[in-house]
Amino acid sequence: MMAIKVILRVLVFTIVFSMLPKHQAWGETDCYGEKYSVLERCKENLKKVAYVPPKLGDECCRTVAVSDMVCVCGVLTEEEMEQIRSLSVILIARDCGHPLPAGTKCGIWTIPPSLPMRARP
C-alpha cells in the first residue's frame, strides 16, 4: 500500500513538472509565437542574399508592430541565424518604425547607440 502511494506521488510530480515549458521555468518571456510570425511574414525581407526593406503597412510591418522585437531577437536560435541575417531583423524593425533600443543584442549584433532612422521616400 505504501509503495503505491509513493509511486502515485512520483507520477503526479512528473506530470506537473513535465507540463511546465522550459523557457517559462527559466523565467524567459514567451515570445516564440511572435518570432515565428515575424520569420514567416517577413521571410522575403529576411533572405540572406540581400536585404529588401519592407513597405510600411505591409504584412511584415504590421507583424513587427504587434511583436516584442527585443524578445524576438533574444530567442533566435543559431539554426535560424544561419538561414537569415540578424542585421536584417534589426533593419526591418527600424524600417517599420519600431527601432530596437540601443544595447539590444540580436544574434551577433548589438544595437549601437546611434542607428539612425532611414528616410522614407
TrEMBL record:
Signal peptide: 1-27
Domain of life, per lineage: Eukaryota
Keywords: Signal
Stored Pfam families: LTP_2
Presence of keyword Cell cycle: no
Sequence ranges assigned to domain Bifunctional inhibitor/plant lipid transfer protein/seed storage helical in this UniProt record: 15-106
InterPro entries, sorted: Bifun_inhib/LTP/seed_sf, Bifunc_inhib/LTP/seed_store
UniProt keyword annotation of Signal present: yes
UniProt-listed PANTHER family: 5A2 PROTEIN (PTHR33286:SF44), BIFUNCTIONAL INHIBITOR/LIPID-TRANSFER PROTEIN/SEED STORAGE 2S ALBUMIN SUPERFAMILY PROTEIN (PTHR33286)
Name this polypeptide is given: Bifunctional inhibitor/plant lipid transfer protein/seed storage helical domain-containing protein
